[in-house]
Write a structure and sequence with these properties.
It comes from Saccharopolyspora cebuensis. InterPro entries: Glyas_Bleomycin-R_OHBP_Dase, Glyoxalase_6, VOC_core. It holds the Pfam family Glyoxalase_6. This is VOC family protein. This protein has two helices and eight strands. The protein is α/β, with parallel strands linked by helices. The chain has two domains: 1-59, Signal recognition particle alu RNA binding heterodimer, srp9/1, CATH 3.30.720; 61-124, 2,3-Dihydroxybiphenyl 1,2-Dioxygenase, domain 1 (Roll), CATH 3.10.180.10. The strands form two sheets. The protein has a four-stranded mixed β-sheet with strand order 1-4-3-2, with helices on one face. Strands 5-8-7-6 form a four-stranded mixed β-sheet, covered by helices on one side. Strand 2 and strand 3 (40-44) form a beta hairpin. Helix 1 packs antiparallel against helix 2.
Length: 124
């Protein structure tokens, strides 16, 4: 059996270029214009590997996490060297900090939402 490899993790969103711009600022990655179109945008990791992709969904509804009304289906974890520096970078890119889970108040991660409401974590 041949090996299978993940090539991209895709997020549904109303505006792929806008959301790709946010994650590009956060991660320091560039849009791969050759692999992108109006309804699909790919961010390429500068060292190769799995890409982040953004796919237009005209019916997209953001999660209401931590409320279960519209549950999150997936989230991205981003490793940072320092949570405070990562926090400032995330806010400058356009993120919103979300409530820390009460049982994780002293954890080595912080929870945020991207501009379209997808939760993501910065992890030390």
């Amino acid at each position: 059996m041949s090996a299978l490899n993940v090539i991209a993790f895709a997020l549904d969103c109303p505006d792929p270029h806008r959301l790709a711009g946010f994650y590009g600022r956060l991660l320091g990655w560039e849009i791969d214009e050759a692999e992108s179109a109006a309804d699909w945008v790919e961010l390429a990791h500068p060292e190769g590997g799995v890409r982040l992709a953004f796919q237009r969904d005209p019916h997209y509804r953001p999660t209401t996490w931590p409320s279960p009304e519209v549950p999150q289906k997936a989230h991205v974890d981003v490793r940072v060297d320092d949570l405070d520096t990562g926090h400032e970078r995330a806010l400058a890119a356009g993120a919103t900090q979300l409530p820390q889970p009460p049982d994780q108040a002293d954890a080595s991660f912080r929870v945020y939402a991207d501009p379209d409401g997808h939760p993501f974590c910065l992890c030390a």
